[in-house]
Amino acid sequence: MDGPALGQPSAPPGVVTLMRTLSPRYLFILIATLAPLSAGALTPDEARHLLVRTGFDASPDAVTKLAPLTWERAVQQVLNTAHEQPLTAAPTWINDLPPDPRQIKELDDEARKQIQKQTRERAVELKTWWYREMLNTDSPLTEHMTLFWHNHFTSSMRKVKWPAYLYRQNLLLRRYALGNYRDLLHTVAHDPAMLVYLDGQQNRREKPNENFARELLELFTLGEGHYTERDIKEAARAFTGWMVDRRTGEFQMNARQHDGGEKNFLGRRGKIGGDEVIEIILEQPRAAEFIVQKLWREFVSDKPDPQEIDRLATLLRNNRYEMRPLMQALLTSPAFRDPANRGALVKSPVELLVGTARQLQIPVAEPFNLARAGIRLGQDVFDPPNVKGWPGGQTWITSNTLLARRQILEQMLRGAEMGTTRKSGTMTASMNDVGDMDKLKPLLLPLEPVNPPTKDQGTQRLRSWILDPVYQLK
Amino acid sequence: MNRRDFLGMAGTGVTCLLAPRWLQAAMAPAWGRVLVLVELQGGNDGLNTVVPYRDSRYYELRPRLAIARDKVLPLSDQIGFNPALEPLMSAWQSKELALILGVGYPQPNRSHFRSIEIWETASDSEETLQQGWLARLFAQTPPPADYTAHGVVLGGAAGPLMGDASHIVVQNAEQFVQQGKRLTASQTVSHNAALDHMLRVQQETIHAASTLQDRLAATPTLEKEFPKTPIGQQLAAAARLLGARVPVVAIKVSHGGFDTHVNQRGTHDRLLGELATSLAAFREAVVKQNRWNEVLVLTYSEFGRRAGENGSNGTDHGTAAPHFALGGRVRGGFYGQQPSLTQLSEGDLIHRVDFRSVYATVGKRFLGTPMDFLGQSHPPLDFVA
Question: What CATH number did the domain enclosing B62 receive?
């Protein structure tokens, strides 16, 4: 297990230096492009809810596109944006193999330090790469789901120590993000980063290592109380010999290290291997319930409704673990649409940072500074605090992160306003021309603001909304 | 009393009037004393921390991981310290360090997350509670209303303070004050639970920042150099709060990385060394502040590790382990009993002391609080004078 969730104390990140302008035109366009509503269409409030819950922000463009649709069609449209490949160009080193540990032992201190330095730099590049993708993607849902799976099938740089493996894991997670859960689970179990993270390399016939088997049952598929200590030991035996081939960087089945003997797992007896363990798990009704509950907490509310979980889990099983029908049903469920659930969840640091940059169209020259801000707020992507991932929800907000969130949002706003000072008079004028600034509000806030209303127009009012606690809810 | 009441009552001084008569009749709580909790995150390997160096079973169980007999720092003719703990020898010799041996609980759970929850809420193995054990203590015996907060979290999760205990999470006290001063509250409650949580944290932050400000300003920064490790810096921050006499009951720090499944020796020795040097620096600084008699440092961890080593030069999740109590009021020596290495339960140590007896000692002997919420079956130990 790794260290505490919060990042090291650090100087305020230089977000300001990276954000250039909040175009005065932006506010104008934002308001002008909001289409008039037709009957039965999505209100701006509903469109924001769907967009922010499944992505990062509610751009006027996206709201306008959803506005004429029924809820059913709007959800379909959001799901149809998903793609399996990232848009951002990959770092150059993604196929490099980690150095042989025996060779590392023979290196002198200087050479060893050089490798460590390179690894650190690549970790920065990798985090930059993902933030860039999140900032620029035309499918925020793909990123949201990839982040969800990253927080479910966790692996961390601290343990894996080879950024290329984590890059490849990220590709895997996004390829299956809205694909088939069974395929995802099987592929994750063969994934090099996962094998290193949960000690597959050490799982040998003579001395099984239980780390992967335990977390597979406890955190990935069934949850506590749905298996015994004995099942863990048997599953660990079934996965013995599942390793990364250091010569290829790919999965290999090391037959010499595999225990092919009889096992007794979740009531089934036989010469069970790792693949069979996963299949037996997926036969348990609990497997579908478990993942549906987690998706409910991510997308709907922190109080799963048992009847609905039951309905959705059955649907997932009947669709042979296909994710799309499940997500369509989840996002059209009465609970998801219930106005009482608007603003019921706290935005994660990534959602807050990427969402604000996208919402305000702030050009981010150096995405790693957003990653650094994320660390301060308790979410270091590719480095979850431990195998359980970020606990999320209300735990995102402590006195420490509350202050840091405010400070970072202020910096983003200041950065956003930079370069507009000369024209600010013009902007205010254009605002007044357009008229009601309050049209903006439902795109930013899920509830009425709690800070006192400001009489100012334009950027001052925008500022007071962004700094309102309600803006940090979704 | 919940966190909101605590804030609402700040400065009104009505606490004593509201205290039930039985409480007034009992010993008065010793507010002014500070409990410093050190979480050893990941499950600390007890057998390589406090080593049964005369027991040949230990060397049989751990052919590659055992600490050589001649390297152990003897504390008795049976057990001794991992040599990395040398910086704690002086506290041991001056009887300010108690070693509580074989601490655990019945029906041990080997999940990190579940087991730390059991430790932090003081629940039974099968029982799930929402409130941390300190939150439960403060609900029964509320600290003075003008306190900065019930607890300060300098590392890791709120853990024992989880729930209704008012607590602040701080990395740098000066920055905290500076930023906290700028917050304004226009609304303090909401029926939306997420928003209500944010508003509540905001209120606590405003309150804490205002009480911290003057005290920190009036206190010179630490002279003592602390190790530049995360645990060293957290304990430095704790010493700073103690030096400034910031009124809180508990301070929590966290030392991570104890989940040593693979190649344990180097990592574990380093972690123990970091812990020991940081605690030694902390002791020196707090003695100098004349507050050592008001401070109790207590370690805890979700579990110990298996008695035998695994196939990866490491150890897997286990059960009982020793814990440290350190401070001016501590009666140094051994408490509990070293678990047997021949009588194991499926390869695991059998606990000798329930961790709730340790908490009962902290409450009854150190903080002067009745601890009724723990039930009757956890008598206190004698490690606090």
Answer: 3.40.720
- When scoring B125, B169, B226 by the number of chain A Cβ atoms within 10 A, the one with the most, hence best to mutate, is B169
Q: What is the pLDDT of residues B76-131, one digit of tens each?
A: 999 999 999 999 999 999 999 999 999 999 999 998 988 999 999 999 998 889 89
Q: Which B residues in the span 177-196 are in contact with A, Cβ-Cβ below 8 Å?
A: 179-180, 183-184, 186-187, 190, 192-195
Whether residue A38 is found in the same domain as residue A111: no
> Is A379 in the same domain as A252?
no
Radius of gyration of chain B (CA): 21
| CB < 8 Å to A159, chain B | none
Residue A22 domain flag:
yes
At B192-229, the pLDDT tens digits run: 999 999 999 999 999 999 889 989 988 888 888 999 99
In a domain, B1, yes or no: no
Q: Is B44 on the interface with A (CB under 8 A)?
A: no
On whether residue B384 sits in a domain, the answer given is no
Enter the ipTM: 0.88
Helix (H, G, I), strand (E, B) or coil at A415: helix
A22 & A135 share domain: no
In this prediction, residues A363-370 reach a mean pLDDT of 90
Same-domain check for residues A378 and A408: yes
| Residue A426 distance to chain B (closest CA, Å) | 30
What is the reported pLDDT for A26?
54
How many residue pairs from chains A and B have C-beta atoms closer than 8 A? Answer: 143
Give B219's Cβ-side CA count (13 Å radius).
Answer: 20
In a domain, B71, yes or no: yes
Q: Does the CB of A229 have a partner CB in chain B at under 8 Å? A: yes
Residue A400: CB partners within 8 Å, gap ≥ 6? A6, B168, B169, B170, B171, B176
User: Do A49 and A119 fall into the same domain?
Assistant: no
The verdict on a CB contact (< 8 Å) between A403 and B111 is no
Q: Print the SS3 string covering A175-221.
A: HCCCCEHHHHHHHHHCCHHHHHHCCHHHCCCCCCCCHHHHHHHHHHH
- Print the domain residue range for A466: 15-83+344-472
Its domain, for residue B206, covers 28-374
Distance of residue B333 Cα from the nearest chain A Cα, in angstroms: 31
47-106 of B, contacting A, C-beta below 8 A: none
Q: Indicate if A76 and A110 belong to the same structural domain.
A: no
User: What is the pTM assigned to this prediction?
Assistant: 0.79
Q: Would residue B381 count as lying in a domain?
A: no
**Quick check: B195 and A473 CB within 8 A?**
yes
Q: Within the 445-464 window of chain A, which residues sit less than 8 Å (CB to CB) from chain B?
A: 447, 450-452
The DSSP secondary structure of B89-152, one letter per residue, reads HHHHHTT-EEEEEEEE-SS----HHHHHHHHHHT--TT---SS-HHHHHHHHSPPPTTSS-SEE
User: Residue A28: what pLDDT?
Assistant: 54
In total, how many domains does chain B have? 1
Quickly tell me which residue has 């809420």 as its tokens. B121
Number of domains in chain A: 2
Please give the average per-residue pLDDT across A291-298, as a whole number.
98
Helix (H), strand (E) at residue B175 = helix B173-180
Nearest-CB residue to A397 (from B43, B201, B314): B201
Whether residue A260 sits in one domain with residue A138 = yes
Residues A268 and A143 reside in one and the same domain? yes
